[in-house]
Design brief:
By secondary structure, the protein is of the alpha+beta class. The protein has one domain (3-81). Helix content is 20%, strand content 27%. It is built from 3 helices and 7 strands. It has helices spanning 23-26, 40-45, 69-75; strands at residues 3-4, 10-11, 13-16, 34-36, 49-52, 61-65, 79-81. The strands form 3 sheets. The protein has a 3-stranded antiparallel sheet. The chain has a two-stranded antiparallel ribbon with strand order 1-2. The chain has a two-stranded antiparallel ribbon with strand order 4-7. A hairpin with an 8-residue loop joins β5 and β6 (61-65). It starts with a strand and ends in a 5-residue tail after the last strand.
Length: 86
Amino acid sequence: MYNYDSQGKLSGVSVNSALSQSVKELTKSIPNKQVGVTTVGEVRKTGGDILPSGTLNNQYHCILCGITPQQAEELFTPTIRNPNLK
C-alpha cells in the first residue's frame, strides 16, 4: 500500500538509487525476483523526485514521490530479473 499526496501522486515509495552504482549493487538488499529500473533523470522529467533516505542496513535507500501510479508503471516497466537472485 502506498501513500498519496493531496494531488493523488505517490508519496513515500521506497526505491534504491545512487550515482554511478550498477543495478546489481543497488538490488543487493532487494528480495524480489523482478525489479523495475529507471533513472532519476527520467523520474524528474515526469515531475517526480528521488530523495536520499539511507538507512543503517541500506545506504542506497531513497524515497520516490510526485508521480502518479500510471507514470511509475510506465517508468519501471518492463521489469528485469534481479541480478542477485538465482
